[in-house]
Amino acid sequence: MSVVIGAGGATSTARIAPSDLIVFGTDGWRARIGEGYTFANVRRVSAAAARYYAAHADGEARGIVIGHDRRFGARDFAIAAAETVAAHGVPVWLTADATPTPVISFSVGAQEAAGAINLTASHNPAHDLGFKVRDADGAALSPAALALLEAEIPPPGADVERVPFADALADGRIRIFDPAPRYRAHAAARVDLRRIADAGLRVAYDPMWGAGLGWLRWLLGPGARTELLTIHGTPNPLFPEMGRPEPIPPNTDALARHVRATGADIGIANDGDADRIGVIDEHGRFVNQLQVFGLLAWWLLEIKGERGAIVRTLSTTSMLDVLGRKYGVPVYETGVGFKYVGPKMLGTDAMIGGEESGGFAFRGLPERDGLLVALALLEAMIETGQTPSELVATLYDAVGATWHYDRVDVVFDGAQRAAVQGRLSAAAPAVMADVPVVRIDRQDGHKFWFPDDGWLLIRFSGTEPLMRVYVETTHGDRVAALLNAGLALAGLDRTGRAVG
Fold first, then answer.
1. Domain pair 2-178 / 183-399, same fold
2. Residue 412: which pLDDT band, with cuts at 50, 70 and 90?
């Protein structure tokens, strides 16, 4: 493979192994531990990050935050990153232990740092680890900033400077800190922690063996009457009972059973780094991510009386557009990924932003926060006196229709990708599954709009070798047929085999 690689700002052409190619996708660089994700490659990208922060964010004066999740080797990789960054003249605040992604991002502002490095693979399978970078606002770096950082990545085999961890601790170039107290104050400014703690709710909770372990209980404080009935509540980087720590079915099936068995008022799951959320209602039924986004926006507008822009990716709910029209607030659509959502939230002073994957952010921190969203949903239940299923019904009343959503993930041979892309780029259907197509949007994938503000989207993952087909519509009887029509446009079946 011939690629252009950066080396301290200069570029050269070299032949490198695929496992040494570092490219930032939808949210960071991710690779298989021991294959692409090695100490050598982590040091390469850490050196690039240090150079970026020094050149573009006053990093040598302000320093950066480095944190990590609970995956295999994450602490050791975080230390390797810290040693490299410190050796390049950028001071480091290293979290004392595994830390949720939203807490790491919040800590950037709390420490007045230039940005952050977060060693996490979020919801990926157990064999992966990742590398996220954040700016001085705690937001994902924009695509333009990521391009500058990528250009600084040294070539494989380069001598990357680093300082021994003990030496950097001794001279203050690396400082270990506890981010929890300031984050708790941040959460208390958004929701009434004492009211939630005193409400006496029964909350079935699944941290999915990950970085969210213990945080909700600690945020509610000692003596809380609200109970957290926790499953998967010990660290385990293998993520047993689930293919990956992603808070959607079937990974949430155990939580649904737990809700029914315990009679809990709600079930809440956080993914491996606690920036995403999955919700189970009081009957043990999954509340999908689009319903959750709509509920959060409705809660802010109707119950909290807030006003401000809503930022959503093109793969999430049109209910937000309905709410925007009803309450007179703008709704902005972005490409998929918080590298688009975060900067747009900052640029519009948005009150909420989010995406289909279950990641939502509130004004003040343009980062997905599965912990704060969990608390907000509990507060919404308390303030309205409604159960999760009743809240969904109230949302549908507010938007004037019942909305239906589903998604199919298709893994297929990468050699077919160009052919699939070609078929999709040429597709211009007037009707899909007996539903008229009123316009087509190709800003990030292929999105087909229907007269009811419903849509079907086909796009490739930015971090994994798969294609996703999404549909949202008020025509509940058409969901499966629309998904099949989308697959037919791509020339694939649900197993990833070519058809037609």
1. yes
2. confident
Residue 117 and residue 132: Cα distance in Å, rounded?
Answer: 6
Q: So where are the chain's domains?
A: 2-178, 183-399, 404-490
Q: How far is CA 14 from CA 69, 141, 154, 423, in A?
A: 33, 27, 12, 33
Would you state the CATH architecture of domain 404-490? Answer: 2-Layer Sandwich (3.30)
Nearest Cα to 234, choosing from 272, 269, 208?
208
- Position 466 scores a pLDDT of 86
Cβ neighbors of 55 (< 8 A, separation 6 or more) are none
The residues pairing with 176 across neighbouring beta strands, listed in sequence order, are 94
Interval 347-365: pLDDT, tens: 999 999 999 989 999 999 9
Annotation: CATH topology of 183-399: Alpha-D-Glucose-1,6-Bisphosphate; Chain A, domain 3 (3.40.120)
SS3 80: helix
pTM for the model: 0.92
Contact 71, 236 (CB under 8 A): no
SS3 129: strand
Rounded Cα distance, 483 and 75, in Å: 41
For domain 2-178, the CATH architecture is: 3-Layer(aba) Sandwich (3.40)
Size of the chain, expressed as the number of residues it contains = 500
For 107-136, the pLDDT digits (tens) are 999 999 999 999 999 999 999 999 999 999
